[in-house]
Amino acid sequence: MKNLDKVKTAPVNEEIRFHVKVILAGDGAVGKSSLLRRYVLDDFSEEHKMTKGMDTYSKLTRVPGLGVVKIHTWDLAGQPQWSAVRESFYLGSHAMALVFDVSQPETIQHLPDWVRECRGKAPNIPVLVVASKIDLPFKVPVAKIARWAQDSGYDYIETSAKNKYNVEAMFEKLGTMGVNFTLKSR
Ligand code: GDP
After folding, report:
1. pLDDT (tens digit, 9 = 90+) per residue, 66-75?
2. pTM, whole model, 2 decimals?
């Protein structure tokens, strides 16, 4: 397990108001580690290194209207052999990014399964559906997925870790969703 406590853009001398645990779920190779890497290190690699078990990173972020939030991100391995490990990491999480790859239609198939698995351990956790790699040709009916997200009460965002598109916005949104969830459950 890697634990890089990188605080690259730490807001100046302000108290951390909230700690939020964010889960990144989705099939292997959909771009979860790349989104994290872009967000935390502002870096991108064409290489795919399979996440083994899980990776964690954290970063301070200023969430508009909420102050400084420390986002602890947990990147879960999509491979089935890690399912026992995965379940324990859902516990205590505050927001879930549900990532699929717009260029790989099979990556939308398991979206409902990921939510079911996560909500089994973290009931009612807010979900952000993340369309990843939007710099590539779309082979997934994204409008349909966006509608499914809306009908299910989930948020939806389109991103590219490669082009830096909406990556900050994605994590800011997850931070906000996580804080609101924490406040509601108090
Ligand atoms: P993970 O298994 O879900 O963590 O997936 P990775 O982050 O390791 O990404 C899998 C592969 O997709 C790697 O070869 C990445 O370079 C590539 N990739 C990730 N994000 C993007 C993106 O936004 N655009 C493109 N074109 N490729 C990406």
Report:
1. 888 888 888 7
2. 0.90
Model pLDDT, residue 54:
62
Pocket flag, ligand 1, residue 135 (CB < 6 Å): yes
**Residue written as token pair 């779920």:** 25
Closest atom of ligand 1 relative to the 160 alpha carbon: 23
Pick the CATH number of 2-185 from 3.40.50.300, 3.90.550.10, 3.40.1160.10, 3.40.47.10: 3.40.50.300
Hey, whose CA ends up nearest to atom 10 of ligand 1?
A: 29
Nearest protein Cα to ligand 1, atom 19: 31
Q: What are the extents of the domains in the chain? A: 2-185
